[in-house]
Give the backbone structure.
Amino acid sequence: MIAHEAVVLQGTGGVWQALTDDGQRIDVSIRGRLKHEARLGLKLVVGDRVTITRDERDSAWAIDVIHPRRSQLARRSPGGARGERIMVANLDQVLVVFAAARPEPHPRMLDRFLVIAEANDLHARMVINKAELSSDAAIRTLFADQLAAGYPIHITSVVTGEGLEQLRAEVEGKSSALTGPSGVGKSSLMNRLFPGLDLRTAEISESVNKGRHTTVGAVLHPLPGGGFVADTPGLREVGLWNIAAGGLAECFPEFRPLIGDCRFADCLHTVEPGCRIREAVASGAVRAGRYESYIKLRAELVENAADLW
Protein backbone atom coordinates (compact mmCIF):
# COMPACT_ATOMS: atom_id res chain seq x y z
CA MET A 1 0.00 0.00 0.00
CA ILE A 2 1.35 3.41 -1.04
CA ALA A 3 0.14 6.44 0.95
CA HIS A 4 0.53 10.23 0.71
CA GLU A 5 -0.62 13.18 2.76
CA ALA A 6 -2.28 15.75 0.50
CA VAL A 7 -4.61 18.74 0.24
CA VAL A 8 -7.75 18.73 -1.93
CA LEU A 9 -7.58 21.33 -4.71
CA GLN A 10 -10.88 20.81 -6.52
CA GLY A 11 -13.50 18.26 -7.36
CA THR A 12 -16.37 17.56 -9.72
CA GLY A 13 -18.49 14.51 -10.41
CA GLY A 14 -16.89 12.35 -7.75
CA VAL A 15 -13.35 12.86 -9.05
CA TRP A 16 -11.12 15.07 -6.93
CA GLN A 17 -7.67 16.48 -7.52
CA ALA A 18 -5.23 16.38 -4.61
CA LEU A 19 -1.79 17.93 -4.23
CA THR A 20 0.57 15.73 -2.25
CA ASP A 21 3.06 17.18 0.18
CA ASP A 22 5.85 16.29 -2.23
CA GLY A 23 4.20 18.22 -5.08
CA GLN A 24 2.33 15.58 -7.10
CA ARG A 25 -1.12 16.36 -8.49
CA ILE A 26 -3.20 13.19 -8.38
CA ASP A 27 -6.79 12.46 -9.37
CA VAL A 28 -8.51 10.56 -6.59
CA SER A 29 -11.87 9.05 -5.72
CA ILE A 30 -13.45 8.65 -2.28
CA ARG A 31 -13.61 5.34 -0.46
CA GLY A 32 -17.10 3.93 -0.04
CA ARG A 33 -16.85 4.25 3.74
CA LEU A 34 -16.29 8.02 3.42
CA LYS A 35 -19.18 8.31 0.97
CA HIS A 36 -21.41 6.78 3.64
CA GLU A 37 -20.07 9.24 6.21
CA ALA A 38 -20.74 12.07 3.74
CA ARG A 39 -24.42 11.12 3.76
CA LEU A 40 -24.27 11.52 7.53
CA GLY A 41 -22.80 15.00 7.24
CA LEU A 42 -19.01 14.69 6.82
CA LYS A 43 -18.54 15.88 3.26
CA LEU A 44 -15.21 16.37 1.54
CA VAL A 45 -14.51 19.98 0.56
CA VAL A 46 -11.76 21.91 -1.16
CA GLY A 47 -8.92 22.62 1.26
CA ASP A 48 -9.35 19.44 3.27
CA ARG A 49 -6.17 17.68 4.39
CA VAL A 50 -6.44 14.01 3.43
CA THR A 51 -4.55 10.75 3.32
CA ILE A 52 -4.66 9.10 -0.10
CA THR A 53 -3.66 5.50 -0.79
CA ARG A 54 -3.11 3.19 -3.73
CA ASP A 55 -2.97 -0.56 -3.60
CA GLU A 56 0.10 -1.78 -5.45
CA ARG A 57 -2.15 -4.04 -7.50
CA ASP A 58 -4.36 -1.14 -8.52
CA SER A 59 -3.35 2.08 -10.26
CA ALA A 60 -6.29 4.08 -8.85
CA TRP A 61 -5.80 6.45 -5.93
CA ALA A 62 -8.49 6.97 -3.29
CA ILE A 63 -9.02 9.15 -0.23
CA ASP A 64 -8.85 7.05 2.92
CA VAL A 65 -8.88 9.70 5.65
CA ILE A 66 -10.23 13.25 5.94
CA HIS A 67 -8.24 14.98 8.68
CA PRO A 68 -9.86 17.34 11.23
CA ARG A 69 -10.28 20.91 9.99
CA ARG A 70 -8.70 23.85 11.78
CA SER A 71 -11.09 26.29 10.13
CA GLN A 72 -13.69 26.57 7.40
CA LEU A 73 -15.61 29.14 5.38
CA ALA A 74 -19.30 28.35 5.13
CA ARG A 75 -22.47 30.12 4.10
CA ARG A 76 -26.14 29.31 3.94
CA SER A 77 -27.08 26.97 1.13
CA PRO A 78 -28.20 29.10 -1.83
CA GLY A 79 -31.66 29.24 -3.34
CA GLY A 80 -33.52 29.27 -0.05
CA ALA A 81 -32.38 25.80 0.98
CA ARG A 82 -31.84 25.14 4.67
CA GLY A 83 -28.50 24.33 6.17
CA GLU A 84 -24.98 25.48 5.42
CA ARG A 85 -22.60 24.94 2.57
CA ILE A 86 -18.94 24.64 3.48
CA MET A 87 -16.99 26.27 0.68
CA VAL A 88 -13.34 25.90 1.74
CA ALA A 89 -11.54 24.28 4.68
CA ASN A 90 -8.33 25.10 6.59
CA LEU A 91 -8.09 28.80 5.83
CA ASP A 92 -5.97 31.48 7.49
CA GLN A 93 -7.91 34.49 6.21
CA VAL A 94 -10.65 35.77 3.95
CA LEU A 95 -10.07 38.48 1.36
CA VAL A 96 -13.38 40.24 0.79
CA VAL A 97 -13.05 41.90 -2.61
CA PHE A 98 -15.30 44.76 -3.69
CA ALA A 99 -14.87 47.17 -6.59
CA ALA A 100 -14.47 50.91 -6.25
CA ALA A 101 -17.00 51.14 -9.12
CA ARG A 102 -18.54 48.95 -11.83
CA PRO A 103 -20.26 47.29 -10.09
CA GLU A 104 -21.28 49.95 -7.58
CA PRO A 105 -20.06 49.01 -4.09
CA HIS A 106 -22.48 48.71 -1.20
CA PRO A 107 -20.88 49.00 2.27
CA ARG A 108 -23.84 47.26 3.94
CA MET A 109 -23.30 44.24 1.69
CA LEU A 110 -19.63 44.30 2.69
CA ASP A 111 -20.73 44.07 6.32
CA ARG A 112 -22.60 40.88 5.47
CA PHE A 113 -19.42 39.27 4.11
CA LEU A 114 -17.45 40.43 7.14
CA VAL A 115 -20.01 38.93 9.52
CA ILE A 116 -19.70 35.58 7.72
CA ALA A 117 -15.92 35.70 8.19
CA GLU A 118 -16.32 36.59 11.87
CA ALA A 119 -18.85 33.79 12.39
CA ASN A 120 -16.25 31.38 11.02
CA ASP A 121 -13.54 32.84 13.31
CA LEU A 122 -11.55 33.90 10.26
CA HIS A 123 -9.45 37.04 9.91
CA ALA A 124 -10.85 39.28 7.16
CA ARG A 125 -9.18 41.83 4.91
CA MET A 126 -11.00 44.31 2.69
CA VAL A 127 -9.69 44.55 -0.85
CA ILE A 128 -11.15 47.41 -2.86
CA ASN A 129 -10.23 46.74 -6.48
CA LYS A 130 -10.52 48.91 -9.61
CA ALA A 131 -8.98 51.86 -7.78
CA GLU A 132 -8.40 53.58 -11.11
CA LEU A 133 -12.15 54.27 -11.24
CA SER A 134 -12.16 56.35 -8.05
CA SER A 135 -9.79 58.08 -5.64
CA ASP A 136 -8.11 56.86 -2.48
CA ALA A 137 -9.93 59.48 -0.43
CA ALA A 138 -13.33 58.59 -1.88
CA ILE A 139 -12.77 54.88 -1.26
CA ARG A 140 -11.71 55.42 2.35
CA THR A 141 -14.72 57.67 2.92
CA LEU A 142 -17.12 55.09 1.46
CA PHE A 143 -15.73 52.33 3.67
CA ALA A 144 -15.04 54.48 6.73
CA ASP A 145 -17.40 52.38 8.86
CA GLN A 146 -15.41 49.20 8.27
CA LEU A 147 -12.09 50.97 8.73
CA ALA A 148 -13.30 52.35 12.06
CA ALA A 149 -14.20 48.78 13.07
CA GLY A 150 -10.55 47.82 12.59
CA TYR A 151 -10.57 45.94 9.31
CA PRO A 152 -7.42 46.36 7.21
CA ILE A 153 -7.93 47.69 3.69
CA HIS A 154 -6.00 47.10 0.48
CA ILE A 155 -6.81 49.51 -2.36
CA THR A 156 -5.75 47.83 -5.61
CA SER A 157 -5.79 48.25 -9.35
CA VAL A 158 -4.97 45.60 -11.91
CA VAL A 159 -4.66 48.43 -14.47
CA THR A 160 -2.13 50.62 -12.63
CA GLY A 161 -0.60 48.06 -10.24
CA GLU A 162 -1.58 50.11 -7.18
CA GLY A 163 -1.46 48.17 -3.93
CA LEU A 164 -0.48 44.85 -5.49
CA GLU A 165 2.88 44.38 -3.77
CA GLN A 166 1.41 45.05 -0.34
CA LEU A 167 -1.44 42.60 -0.95
CA ARG A 168 0.92 39.94 -2.30
CA ALA A 169 2.96 40.13 0.90
CA GLU A 170 -0.18 39.40 2.95
CA VAL A 171 -1.21 36.44 0.79
CA GLU A 172 2.03 34.52 0.21
CA GLY A 173 2.59 31.69 2.65
CA LYS A 174 -1.02 31.71 3.87
CA SER A 175 -4.20 29.93 2.87
CA SER A 176 -6.67 32.60 1.76
CA ALA A 177 -10.19 32.59 0.38
CA LEU A 178 -11.19 35.15 -2.19
CA THR A 179 -14.83 36.15 -1.92
CA GLY A 180 -17.11 39.04 -2.75
CA PRO A 181 -19.77 39.97 -5.30
CA SER A 182 -19.53 38.96 -8.94
CA GLY A 183 -17.66 41.21 -11.33
CA VAL A 184 -15.31 42.94 -8.89
CA GLY A 185 -12.20 41.50 -10.53
CA LYS A 186 -11.22 38.73 -8.11
CA SER A 187 -9.79 36.45 -10.78
CA SER A 188 -8.08 39.28 -12.66
CA LEU A 189 -6.52 40.43 -9.40
CA MET A 190 -5.06 37.01 -8.63
CA ASN A 191 -3.81 36.60 -12.21
CA ARG A 192 -1.96 39.89 -11.90
CA LEU A 193 -0.57 39.04 -8.45
CA PHE A 194 0.53 35.55 -9.44
CA PRO A 195 1.12 35.18 -13.20
CA GLY A 196 0.51 31.62 -14.28
CA LEU A 197 -2.61 31.00 -12.23
CA ASP A 198 -4.75 31.68 -15.33
CA LEU A 199 -8.00 32.05 -13.43
CA ARG A 200 -11.01 32.56 -15.68
CA THR A 201 -12.29 36.10 -16.01
CA ALA A 202 -15.32 37.76 -17.57
CA GLU A 203 -16.35 41.27 -18.48
CA ILE A 204 -19.05 43.26 -16.71
CA SER A 205 -22.44 43.30 -18.37
CA GLU A 206 -23.05 46.94 -19.29
CA SER A 207 -26.83 46.41 -19.40
CA VAL A 208 -27.21 45.30 -15.78
CA ASN A 209 -23.84 46.40 -14.34
CA LYS A 210 -23.47 43.01 -12.68
CA GLY A 211 -20.69 40.53 -13.10
CA ARG A 212 -21.16 37.30 -14.96
CA HIS A 213 -20.24 34.25 -12.94
CA THR A 214 -16.92 32.77 -14.00
CA THR A 215 -16.11 30.31 -11.20
CA VAL A 216 -18.58 27.45 -10.74
CA GLY A 217 -17.04 25.89 -7.64
CA ALA A 218 -14.29 26.65 -5.17
CA VAL A 219 -10.81 25.84 -6.48
CA LEU A 220 -7.65 25.93 -4.36
CA HIS A 221 -4.60 27.24 -6.20
CA PRO A 222 -1.05 26.68 -4.90
CA LEU A 223 0.98 29.90 -4.92
CA PRO A 224 4.56 30.10 -6.23
CA GLY A 225 5.91 31.51 -2.97
CA GLY A 226 4.01 29.06 -0.77
CA GLY A 227 0.45 29.07 0.46
CA PHE A 228 -2.85 28.75 -1.37
CA VAL A 229 -5.64 30.96 -2.62
CA ALA A 230 -9.18 29.64 -2.95
CA ASP A 231 -11.14 31.15 -5.81
CA THR A 232 -14.79 30.96 -4.73
CA PRO A 233 -17.88 31.51 -6.88
CA GLY A 234 -19.15 35.06 -7.20
CA LEU A 235 -21.99 35.47 -4.75
CA ARG A 236 -25.11 37.45 -5.51
CA GLU A 237 -26.93 35.96 -2.55
CA VAL A 238 -25.02 35.79 0.70
CA GLY A 239 -27.14 34.17 3.36
CA LEU A 240 -26.40 33.86 7.04
CA TRP A 241 -26.73 30.47 8.70
CA ASN A 242 -26.35 28.87 12.09
CA ILE A 243 -25.96 32.20 13.90
CA ALA A 244 -28.37 32.81 16.76
CA ALA A 245 -29.82 36.30 16.59
CA GLY A 246 -28.65 36.81 20.17
CA GLY A 247 -25.08 36.06 19.18
CA LEU A 248 -24.88 38.32 16.14
CA ALA A 249 -23.36 41.21 18.10
CA GLU A 250 -20.25 39.06 18.71
CA CYS A 251 -19.66 39.16 14.93
CA PHE A 252 -19.09 42.93 15.10
CA PRO A 253 -15.60 43.46 16.61
CA GLU A 254 -16.33 47.01 17.77
CA PHE A 255 -19.40 45.76 19.70
CA ARG A 256 -17.58 43.07 21.68
CA PRO A 257 -16.02 45.24 24.42
CA LEU A 258 -19.45 46.72 25.16
CA ILE A 259 -21.69 43.65 25.19
CA GLY A 260 -21.23 42.70 28.84
CA ASP A 261 -21.80 46.24 30.11
CA CYS A 262 -25.43 46.66 29.07
CA ARG A 263 -27.98 47.16 31.85
CA PHE A 264 -29.72 43.89 31.00
CA ALA A 265 -27.76 40.65 30.63
CA ASP A 266 -30.05 39.52 27.81
CA CYS A 267 -29.92 42.86 25.97
CA LEU A 268 -30.70 42.51 22.26
CA HIS A 269 -29.17 45.93 21.48
CA THR A 270 -32.29 47.09 19.69
CA VAL A 271 -34.62 49.13 21.95
CA GLU A 272 -33.51 48.30 25.49
CA PRO A 273 -32.62 51.15 27.88
CA GLY A 274 -29.08 51.13 29.19
CA CYS A 275 -27.70 49.43 26.08
CA ARG A 276 -24.02 50.30 25.81
CA ILE A 277 -23.95 49.65 22.08
CA ARG A 278 -26.84 52.02 21.38
CA GLU A 279 -25.21 54.62 23.63
CA ALA A 280 -21.95 54.22 21.69
CA VAL A 281 -23.82 54.72 18.41
CA ALA A 282 -25.47 57.87 19.77
CA SER A 283 -22.11 59.27 20.88
CA GLY A 284 -20.39 58.38 17.61
CA ALA A 285 -18.03 55.87 19.21
CA VAL A 286 -19.64 53.15 17.07
CA ARG A 287 -20.50 54.00 13.48
CA ALA A 288 -24.22 54.26 12.77
CA GLY A 289 -23.86 52.43 9.46
CA ARG A 290 -22.45 49.36 11.16
CA TYR A 291 -25.28 49.40 13.69
CA GLU A 292 -27.73 49.68 10.79
CA SER A 293 -26.20 46.50 9.34
CA TYR A 294 -26.57 44.77 12.71
CA ILE A 295 -30.27 45.64 12.92
CA LYS A 296 -30.94 44.52 9.36
CA LEU A 297 -29.04 41.23 9.72
CA ARG A 298 -30.62 40.52 13.09
CA ALA A 299 -34.10 40.92 11.61
CA GLU A 300 -33.12 38.49 8.87
CA LEU A 301 -31.90 35.93 11.41
CA VAL A 302 -35.10 36.24 13.44
CA GLU A 303 -37.16 35.72 10.28
CA ASN A 304 -35.07 32.71 9.25
CA ALA A 305 -35.50 31.16 12.70
CA ALA A 306 -39.27 31.65 12.49
CA ASP A 307 -39.31 29.85 9.11
CA LEU A 308 -37.93 26.71 10.80
CA TRP A 309 -41.04 26.29 12.95
